[in-house]
Amino acid sequence: MHDIVIVGAGTGGCVLASRLTENPDLSVLLIEAGARSRKLETKVPAAFFKLFRTEVDWGDSTTPQSGLDGREIVFPRGRMLGGSAAMNAMMVLRGHPADYDAWAANGCPGWSWNEVVPAFARSAQGPFPLAQQREPSVLTEAFVHAARAVGIPFTDDLNAEDNAGVGFVPVSQRRGRRFSVLDGYLNQARRRPNLTVVTGALVTRIVLENGRAVGVAYRLHGEDVLEEEALAESEVVLCAGAIGTPHLLQLSGIGPRAALEAAGVEVLHEHAGVGANLLDHLANGLLVKTKGVETLATAESLRNFARWAIRGRGPLTSNLGEAAAFVRTRPDLAAPDLELLLAPVLFEEEGLKQPTEHGLTLAVVLLRPKSVGSVTVRSADPLVPPAIDPCYLTDPEGEDIATILHGLRLARRVLSQEPLAGFVDGEILPGDEARSDDDLRAHIRQLSQTLYHPAGTCRMGSDPLAVVDPALRVRGIEGLRIADASVIPELPSGHTNWPTVMIAERAADLIAGETKTRS
Ligand SMILES: Cc1cc2nc3c(=O)[nH]c(=O)nc-3n(C[C@H](O)[C@H](O)[C@H](O)COP(=O)(O)OP(=O)(O)OC[C@H]3O[C@@H](n4cnc5c(N)ncnc54)[C@H](O)[C@@H]3O)c2cc1C
């Protein structure tokens, strides 16, 4: 019996377990399906994509996407201590004040920019320091200059109040190595006697008694059927991520009736919102051959490895997404709706292909998607993954594809400016012959992929479809809260990791406040 049981040791879980156990009177159990990874690729920034489809990745794909020529998109998410934060691209970008003000205005009082800033600051000033990249590529610097040449202003802080502009991306690294929430939060808390961490344990269901979550059932690694139970005196907090959390609720009988019944799960609490509202950042881009410059294609050498290991220097410190430009496609928009992201390497086949020639990727990221998808349980067997259907590019007005198209044209203009143009040795994809809107639309459908930012599947809000209230409590169930990317009601015009850190920081405050009131 513990006071709090947390499911999932990713971004949300690491932050929350660490913050809660600062109070020695509170006992916390943190349960994670994966293990602590010893893989070097979790430490070497430039190697993060080599973790895809390994044992530290859940190995998901989406359902066939009608908006993307029926393709099933590779959909990585971390399955290890640190979760997705142990395999992500380390970019620390929180978005624009208007994003959070919109959360507050749309049913999430208490989450406006001014109210979330202290939690962002608390993380950055302590366990989640933002670092500058140590050795950005020559191509990255050239991109920043080229973007300025088309009128995108330079910013030395992409997390400033207005994040519009082009600049170098801050990273969660220390001395050229990944420094994630696992390092900054959980590892600092591991020795506390009031924290127990169980790894290799797949949580299969939330144990409910009279409408209250009293614990969870889990299977230890290798056990197909045998379940153990962990009980929570005070509450259960789900931090299993935007895919894992709605799946677990649905497996536990909390979710949309028809979907649960179709999967053979007994409905204990009908809730249409669980798993609805899957939002994600879709990325398309230009793949460009380069000349006269070394790219990450040849970064993997003994010499570079030694530089990285001994001095934390060299190209292996690159997180790939080295510079970004945040832009508004219309001046009246409250926040940027498009991001151009420069990687000094060819990022091909959704990261599954090792680059063999020198090149760059100029990605176009759709920051404010109108298309909305879902996560749905497929079977009562917890080992069967849920259906992940982001419904990319299916908004009826076609705004999403139009915005990416706008971005592709802008990306080409940037590429044609010096000093970047001097490094360009021809466009590989979509290729110089792809000129018309139809050509570019075809390219978008053939080549877009996820930027790995699923969110919103247990949306916070005050309406009946919202899954959690603004105190992150699951509506209709006592003793159950959520503190991960699934509660994000609308994607920020940035990335999702730091916002998830912020959410978990605030969850710790909310839980501590309520625990104090109770005792
Ligand atoms: C390849 C990749 C690159 C990314 N790059 C960036 C980036 O550069 N910048 C950025 O801001 N964001 C990035 N992201 C996104 C960011 O990492 C996530 O938004 C963030 O980590 C989400 O945190 P979370 O706590 O919601 O989920 P996660 O960190 O995914 O944690 C969920 C945890 O729960 C565990 N779990 C799930 N189900 C169960 C279960 N049933 N039982 C037990 N444990 C369970 C999982 O194994 C995992 O450890 C990236 C993500 C990926 C995958």
Describe the structure.
The chain has 519 residues and is α+β, with helices and mostly antiparallel strands. It is built from eleven helices and 22 strands. The chain has helices spanning 11-20, 97-105, 113-124, 138-149, 181-189, 241-251, 257-263, 302-311, 399-415, 437-447, 497-518, and strands at 2-7, 28-31, 60-61, 74-75, 165-168, 173-174, 177-178, 195-198, 201-209, 212-220, 228-238, 254-255, 269-270, 282-290, 323-327, 338-343, 359-366, 374-376, 387-389, 424-429, 449-450, 480-482. Strands 1, 2, 8, 9, 10, 11 and 22 form a seven-stranded mixed beta sheet that branches. α1 (11-20) packs parallel to α5, α3 (113-124) crosses α11 and α9 (399-415) packs across α10. The two termini are 17 Å apart. The model has no long low-confidence stretch (mean pLDDT 97). Bound molecules: flavin-adenine dinucleotide (FAD). Flavin-adenine dinucleotide binds next to α1, β9, α6 and α11.
* Molecular shape: globular
Distance between the termini: 17 Å
> What kind of assembly state do the chains in view correspond to?
single chain
Rg calc = 22 Å
Q: Please work out how many helical segments DSSP would assign.
A: 11
Structural class by secondary-structure content:
alpha+beta
Strand content: 15-25%
Number of E-state strands: 22
- Give a list of the ligands: flavin-adenine dinucleotide
The biggest beta sheet is recorded as:
7 strands, mixed
Q: Which range best describes the helical content: under 10%, 10-25%, 25-40%, 40-55%, 55-70% or over 70%?
A: 25-40%
- Uncertain segments: none
Task: Output mean pLDDT.
Answer: 97
